[in-house]
Amino acid sequence: MTRAKYMVEQVTPHKVVISDIGTTHTSVTNDAENVVKELHQKGILKAHRLFYYDSTGRLDELRHDGHGRFTGFAPGPKGRPKAKARWCDV
Predict the structure, then answer these.
(1) Which positions ≥6 away from 28 have C-beta within 8 Å?
(2) Do residues 37 and 70 touch, judged by C-beta distance below 8 A?
(3) How far is CA 26 from the centre of its chain?
(4) How far apart are CA 70 and CA 86, in angstroms?
(5) Is 30 helix (H, G, I), strand (E, B) or coil?
(6) What confidence category does residue 89 fall into, taking pLDDT thresholds of 50, 70 and 90?
(7) Is it the case that residue 78 has pLDDT exceeding 80?
(8) pTM for the full model?
(9) CB neighbours of 88 closer than 8 A, spacing ≥ 6?
């Protein structure tokens, strides 16, 4: 299985926003464990909330324990734009 390809869109004191950019690779959704682990190892994630735009442009959350372990999915914030409008303003 290939790894997910994604771009870090924003890092703030409270959240990280990434976008799935791999159309021929595994999606962020299907590679969530590795994405969380990789962002943690790079020092990007820490205890931030992690939001991601999936391959269809939907904004959701990857939950984690703050130590590099993926713990589940959660719906993204309501009323946030899809895809290219990007939710990077809060």
Answers:
(1) 4, 6, 18, 20, 22, 35, 52, 54, 55, 62
(2) yes
(3) 14
(4) 23
(5) helix
(6) very low
(7) no
(8) 0.85
(9) 9, 10, 17
Question: Are the CB atoms for 36 and 69 separated by under 8 Å?
Answer: yes
Tokens of 4: 């997910």
For residue 41, what pLDDT is reported? 96
Name the residue with tokens 């990280």: 16
Three-class DSSP category at 31? helix
43-69 in b/e burial notation, b at 16+ Cβ within 10 A?
Answer: eebeebbbbbbbbeeebbbbebeeeee
Residue 25, token pair as written in the block: 């690779």
29, two tokens:
């959704």
pLDDT at 84: 47
Phi-psi region of 83 (alpha: psi -120 to 50; beta: other; left: phi over 0): left
Percent of the chain scoring above 70 in pLDDT: 86
Residue 22, pLDDT > 90, answer: no
